[in-house]
Amino acid sequence: MTADTCEELAALLRTAALRVTGPRVAVLGEIALHPHCDADTIATEVRAKLGSISTQTVYDALRALTDTGLIRRIEPAGSPARYETRVGDNHHHLVCRQCGSIEDVDCAVGHTPCLQPHSARGYLVDEAEVMYWGLCPLCQHHSAT
Q1: I want to staple 10 with a disulfide (CB 3.0 to 4.6 A). Which of 17, 20, 50, 95 is the partner?
Q2: CA distances from residue 128 to 37, 90, 108, 114 in whole angstroms, order as listed
Q3: How far is CA 41 from the centre of its chain?
Q4: Radius of gyration over alpha carbons of the chain, in Å?
Q5: In this structure, what DSSP letter does residue 125 have?
Protein backbone atom coordinates (compact mmCIF):
# COMPACT_ATOMS: atom_id res chain seq x y z
CA MET A 1 0.00 0.00 0.00
CA THR A 2 1.19 3.48 -0.77
CA ALA A 3 1.36 6.23 1.83
CA ASP A 4 -1.54 7.99 0.09
CA THR A 5 -3.66 4.84 0.25
CA CYS A 6 -2.87 4.38 3.94
CA GLU A 7 -3.85 7.98 4.64
CA GLU A 8 -7.12 7.54 2.72
CA LEU A 9 -7.92 4.43 4.75
CA ALA A 10 -7.00 6.23 7.98
CA ALA A 11 -9.35 9.07 7.00
CA LEU A 12 -12.17 6.55 6.49
CA LEU A 13 -11.53 5.14 9.96
CA ARG A 14 -11.59 8.62 11.48
CA THR A 15 -14.83 9.44 9.65
CA ALA A 16 -16.38 6.34 11.23
CA ALA A 17 -15.10 7.49 14.65
CA LEU A 18 -12.69 4.56 14.87
CA ARG A 19 -9.21 4.81 16.28
CA VAL A 20 -6.62 4.50 13.53
CA THR A 21 -4.44 1.45 14.12
CA GLY A 22 -2.06 -0.46 11.87
CA PRO A 23 -4.17 -3.63 11.95
CA ARG A 24 -7.39 -1.77 11.09
CA VAL A 25 -5.73 0.04 8.19
CA ALA A 26 -4.21 -3.23 6.94
CA VAL A 27 -7.49 -5.18 7.24
CA LEU A 28 -9.49 -2.46 5.48
CA GLY A 29 -6.83 -2.21 2.77
CA GLU A 30 -6.81 -5.95 2.20
CA ILE A 31 -10.57 -6.08 1.82
CA ALA A 32 -10.46 -3.14 -0.60
CA LEU A 33 -7.85 -4.97 -2.69
CA HIS A 34 -9.55 -8.40 -2.51
CA PRO A 35 -13.29 -8.13 -1.98
CA HIS A 36 -15.21 -11.21 -0.85
CA CYS A 37 -12.27 -12.77 0.99
CA ASP A 38 -12.74 -14.60 4.29
CA ALA A 39 -11.21 -13.81 7.68
CA ASP A 40 -8.46 -16.45 7.38
CA THR A 41 -7.33 -15.08 4.03
CA ILE A 42 -7.40 -11.54 5.39
CA ALA A 43 -5.36 -12.60 8.43
CA THR A 44 -2.77 -14.36 6.26
CA GLU A 45 -2.35 -11.35 3.98
CA VAL A 46 -2.22 -8.86 6.87
CA ARG A 47 0.44 -10.98 8.61
CA ALA A 48 2.49 -10.95 5.41
CA LYS A 49 2.39 -7.14 5.47
CA LEU A 50 2.62 -6.38 9.20
CA GLY A 51 4.36 -9.42 10.62
CA SER A 52 2.94 -10.90 13.78
CA ILE A 53 -0.74 -10.15 14.37
CA SER A 54 -3.19 -12.30 16.28
CA THR A 55 -6.24 -13.81 14.70
CA GLN A 56 -8.30 -12.16 17.44
CA THR A 57 -6.99 -8.73 16.39
CA VAL A 58 -8.12 -9.41 12.82
CA TYR A 59 -11.57 -10.52 14.01
CA ASP A 60 -11.81 -7.45 16.28
CA ALA A 61 -10.96 -5.19 13.32
CA LEU A 62 -13.52 -6.95 11.11
CA ARG A 63 -16.20 -6.54 13.76
CA ALA A 64 -15.43 -2.84 14.27
CA LEU A 65 -15.36 -2.17 10.53
CA THR A 66 -18.64 -4.04 10.03
CA ASP A 67 -20.35 -2.38 13.00
CA THR A 68 -19.51 1.09 11.68
CA GLY A 69 -20.61 0.26 8.13
CA LEU A 70 -17.19 0.60 6.51
CA ILE A 71 -17.38 -3.00 5.31
CA ARG A 72 -20.16 -5.46 4.66
CA ARG A 73 -20.22 -9.08 5.82
CA ILE A 74 -21.91 -11.60 3.54
CA GLU A 75 -22.50 -15.26 4.34
CA PRO A 76 -23.07 -17.49 1.32
CA ALA A 77 -24.47 -20.89 2.29
CA GLY A 78 -21.72 -23.44 2.89
CA SER A 79 -19.01 -20.78 2.97
CA PRO A 80 -17.30 -18.81 5.72
CA ALA A 81 -18.29 -15.17 6.09
CA ARG A 82 -16.83 -12.92 3.43
CA TYR A 83 -16.14 -9.20 3.56
CA GLU A 84 -16.34 -6.35 1.08
CA THR A 85 -15.97 -2.58 1.05
CA ARG A 86 -18.87 -1.99 -1.33
CA VAL A 87 -21.49 -0.72 1.11
CA GLY A 88 -24.41 1.66 1.00
CA ASP A 89 -25.91 0.49 -2.25
CA ASN A 90 -28.40 -2.18 -3.17
CA HIS A 91 -26.24 -4.80 -4.85
CA HIS A 92 -26.33 -8.58 -4.74
CA HIS A 93 -23.91 -11.44 -5.44
CA LEU A 94 -23.26 -14.15 -8.01
CA VAL A 95 -21.75 -17.26 -6.37
CA CYS A 96 -20.15 -20.14 -8.24
CA ARG A 97 -21.35 -23.50 -6.93
CA GLN A 98 -18.14 -25.20 -8.04
CA CYS A 99 -15.21 -22.94 -7.10
CA GLY A 100 -16.95 -20.55 -4.69
CA SER A 101 -15.96 -17.35 -6.48
CA ILE A 102 -18.20 -14.38 -5.73
CA GLU A 103 -18.97 -11.40 -7.94
CA ASP A 104 -21.02 -8.28 -7.30
CA VAL A 105 -24.10 -7.72 -9.43
CA ASP A 106 -26.24 -4.60 -9.38
CA CYS A 107 -29.85 -4.95 -8.34
CA ALA A 108 -32.24 -5.01 -11.28
CA VAL A 109 -34.80 -2.98 -9.32
CA GLY A 110 -32.29 -0.50 -7.93
CA HIS A 111 -33.97 0.39 -4.64
CA THR A 112 -34.04 -1.11 -1.17
CA PRO A 113 -35.63 -3.49 -0.49
CA CYS A 114 -35.86 -4.95 -3.95
CA LEU A 115 -38.16 -7.71 -2.77
CA GLN A 116 -41.09 -7.63 -0.37
CA PRO A 117 -42.36 -10.72 1.42
CA HIS A 118 -45.96 -11.73 0.78
CA SER A 119 -46.65 -11.09 4.47
CA ALA A 120 -44.12 -9.10 6.49
CA ARG A 121 -45.81 -10.25 9.74
CA GLY A 122 -45.30 -6.88 11.38
CA TYR A 123 -41.65 -6.51 10.35
CA LEU A 124 -40.44 -3.27 8.81
CA VAL A 125 -38.40 -4.72 5.93
CA ASP A 126 -35.51 -2.50 4.85
CA GLU A 127 -33.28 -4.95 3.00
CA ALA A 128 -33.48 -8.15 0.96
CA GLU A 129 -30.29 -10.14 0.49
CA VAL A 130 -30.14 -11.93 -2.84
CA MET A 131 -27.55 -14.49 -3.91
CA TYR A 132 -27.59 -15.88 -7.40
CA TRP A 133 -26.03 -19.34 -7.64
CA GLY A 134 -24.59 -21.00 -10.73
CA LEU A 135 -21.30 -21.74 -12.49
CA CYS A 136 -18.76 -19.03 -13.25
CA PRO A 137 -17.37 -18.79 -16.80
CA LEU A 138 -14.11 -20.56 -15.85
CA CYS A 139 -15.92 -23.50 -14.24
CA GLN A 140 -18.28 -23.71 -17.22
CA HIS A 141 -15.24 -23.91 -19.50
CA HIS A 142 -13.65 -26.65 -17.37
CA SER A 143 -16.93 -28.60 -17.28
CA ALA A 144 -17.21 -28.45 -21.07
CA THR A 145 -13.72 -29.83 -21.68
Answers
A1: 20
A2: 22, 9, 13, 6
A3: 12
A4: 17
A5: -
Percent of the chain whose pLDDT exceeds 70? 99
User: pLDDT for 58-109, tens place per residue?
Assistant: 999 999 999 999 999 999 999 999 999 999 888 999 999 999 999 999 987 8
Please give the pLDDT value at position 108: 79
Residues recorded for the chain: 145
Identical fold between 3-74 and 89-144: no
Residues 142 and 8: their CA atoms lie apart, in Å, by: 40
Q: What is the pTM of this model?
A: 0.88
Query: In this structure, is the dihedral angle defined by the CA atoms of residues 64, 66, 67 and 70, taken in order, positive or negative?
Result: positive
Where in the chain are the domains?
3-74, 89-144
Query: Is 1.10.10.10 the CATH classification of the domain at 3-74?
Result: yes
Which residue, 113, 103, 108, 109, is CA-closest to 137? 103
Best CATH choice for the domain 89-144 from the list 1.20.120, 3.30.1490, 3.40.1130, 3.30.40? 3.30.1490
Alpha carbon distances (Å) from 116 to 120, 121, 125: 8, 11, 7
